[in-house]
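Title: Comparing notes on inverse folding

I've been comparing how different people in this forum approach sequence design from structure. To keep things fair, I'm posting one structure and asking everyone to reply with a full sequence. Here's the target:
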């Protein structure tokens, strides 16, 4: 019998951003409130997708973005609310290496942390405009980038990381972004990372506003829709029925 997984969404903090960051050249000047979402996959093992914002050094202040987090929204506490101990997590999949998606890799020292090789190569020496988003030393950030952990590993291209869980390259937002396609009892879902930040990207056929390549961003939106009928964006409150944890799909 094919393995299937449950998916839980964890609310790990709140930011206010200018709306065109989410939807390219749409709603310019409008301020919107967004969540910082982590995902938990439970099946034969436990997998975390993205690790949210690390408080060390106040990266949100360095980036110039607002960020608020209650005690229950701390990643380790949100995991507990989801019934998961950090020791239960055997794999962490990073959709990309930006400050708000790869900030707490050190919470999982015994897990395999997986990113696309193309993303790691770019994150080490990004273009000048994108250095801050990766907390690159060249940006003036004084601490090591939070994704620099000894258990970090890379993959190339589309890979099945566990039966029923695959990563698919989705470049555009960053050169090495990847989505996670998950088999559940309710059918396949695609966790998009920032290749799709909000359902408005689909509604308006518009890429995320923060990107390295508009054409690649549009191609990745199309690819994700071919891979799964239901997409789960990274910064849209619609994914939550209740917080800090919502069960999205069952095994």
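Reply #1:
Here's my take.
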């Amino acid at each position: 019998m094919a393995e299937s997984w449950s998916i839980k969404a964890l609310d790990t903090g709140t930011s206010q951003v200018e709306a065109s960051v989410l939807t390219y050249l749409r709603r310019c000047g409008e301020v919107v409130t967004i969540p910082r979402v982590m995902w938990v996959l439970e099946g034969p093992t436990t997998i975390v997708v993205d690790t949210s914002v690390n408080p060390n050094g106040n990266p949100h202040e360095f980036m110039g973005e607002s960020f608020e987090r209650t005690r229950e929204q701390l990643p380790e506490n949100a995991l507990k609310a989801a019934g998961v101990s950090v020791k239960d997590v055997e794999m962490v999949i990073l959709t990309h290496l930006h400050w708000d998606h790869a900030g707490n890799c050190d919470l999982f020292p015994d897990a395999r942390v997986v990113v696309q090789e193309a993303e790691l190569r770019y994150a080490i020496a990004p273009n000048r405009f994108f250095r801050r988003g990766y907390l690159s030393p060249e940006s003036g950030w004084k601490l090591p980038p939070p994704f620099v952990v000894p258990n970090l590993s890379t993959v190339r291209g589309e890979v099945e990381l566990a039966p029923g869980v695959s990563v698919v390259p989705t470049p555009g937002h960053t050169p090495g972004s990847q989505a996670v396609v998950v088999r559940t009892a309710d059918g396949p879902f695609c966790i998009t990372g920032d290749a799709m930040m909000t359902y408005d990207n689909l509604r308006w056929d518009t890429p995320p506003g923060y990107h390295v390549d508009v054409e690649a961003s549009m191609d990745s939106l199309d690819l994700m829709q071919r891979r799964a009928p239901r997409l789960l964006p990274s910064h849209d409150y619609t994914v939550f029925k209740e917080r800090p944890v919502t069960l999205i799909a069952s095994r």
